[in-house]
């Protein structure tokens, strides 16, 4: 079973509130359309509202709590395990809930060891994505920047406004040795970095780049799901080793 996850949060003046949700759902649907129809894989409805407290203060943002997210994964995941599903892929389009979905997945796996649980981030894994994005946008374009604006121009151009902000890149930075996203990360809020809600540079966004990003996302996740479907994961006898 594959379960797409998104968020409802402000994405600057140019992108819709459901940006992450739209991306996750479109990629999941495109991947399932490519897989042979006889493959035993299904999808749950999109979980459109996620964990987005970092974007509070920007109009339109909605968020569930960390506990609610974990409870939701545990409740539905346990029911899927009881129904006999062997694997649950959480394909998540929102960077702010990566770690939380990983924690929920680990907790679910501990209570349902016969079912593999795979918490995945949409933008991490598929090959060649970074090759399409220049630095420093590849490193610093965290929210509503070049990649997301371009992808939306390809998938739903009617939802993209005319503004192309560059924001959140020149403000105060964490102390030396600390970062926003990587080693020794800080729990940043969007208001720490940006006035518009954008953290990145959307000025060069174009639909052709978005099409290339989409193809690589779909190719990458298709390969990974194919490999999972023909694998023996989770290992045989996992439950007996508890």
Could you characterize the architecture of this molecule?
The C terminus is likely disordered. The protein has a single domain, classed as 3-Layer(aba) Sandwich (Rossmann fold). Helix 1 crosses helix 7 and helix 2 packs parallel to helix 3. The strands form 2 sheets. A 3-stranded parallel beta sheet has the order 1-2-3. It is globular. The protein has 242 residues and is mostly helical. It starts with a strand and ends in a 13-residue tail after the last helix.
Spell out the key features of this protein.
mainly alpha, 5 strands, 242 residues, three-stranded parallel beta sheet, single chain, Rossmann fold, 36% helix, two-stranded antiparallel sheet, disordered C terminus, 7 helices
Structure, briefly:
With 242 residues, the protein is mainly α.
Write the layout of secondary structure elements.
Elements: E1 2-5, H1 19-34, H2 66-82, E2 87-92, H3 98-111, E3 116-121, H4 137-140, H5 146-155, E4 166-167, H6 190-193, E5 200-201, H7 207-229
Helix pairs in contact: 1-7, 2-3, 5-7
């Amino acid at each position: 079973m594959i379960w797409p996850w998104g968020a409802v949060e402000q994405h600057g003046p140019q992108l819709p509130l459901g940006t992450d949700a739209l991306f996750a759902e479109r990629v999941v649907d495109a991947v399932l359309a490519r897989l042979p129809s006889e493959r035993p894989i299904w999808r749950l409805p999109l979980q459109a509202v996620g964990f987005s407290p970092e974007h509070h203060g920007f109009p339109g943002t909605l968020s569930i709590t960390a506990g609610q997210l974990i409870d939701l994964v545990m409740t539905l995941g346990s029911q899927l395990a009881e129904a006999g599903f062997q694997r649950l892929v959480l394909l998540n389009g929102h960077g702010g809930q990566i770690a939380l979905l990983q924690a929920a997945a680990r907790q679910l796996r501990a209570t349902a060891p016969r079912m593999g649980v795979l918490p995945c981030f949409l933008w991490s894994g598929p090959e060649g994505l970074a090759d399409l994005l220049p630095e420093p946008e590849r490193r610093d374009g965290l929210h509503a920047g070049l990649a997301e604006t371009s992808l939306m121009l390809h998938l739903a151009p009617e939802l993209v406004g005319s503004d192309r902000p560059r924001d959140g890149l020149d403000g105060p930075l964490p102390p030396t040795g600390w970062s926003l996203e990587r080693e020794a990360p800080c729990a940043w809020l969007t208001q720490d970095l940006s006035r518009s809600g954008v953290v990145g540079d959307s000025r060069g966004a174009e639909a052709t780049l978005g099409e290339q990003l989409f193809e690589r996302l779909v190719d990458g996740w298709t390969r990974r799901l194919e490999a999972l479907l023909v694998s023996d994961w989770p290992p045989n006898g996992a439950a007996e080793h508890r």
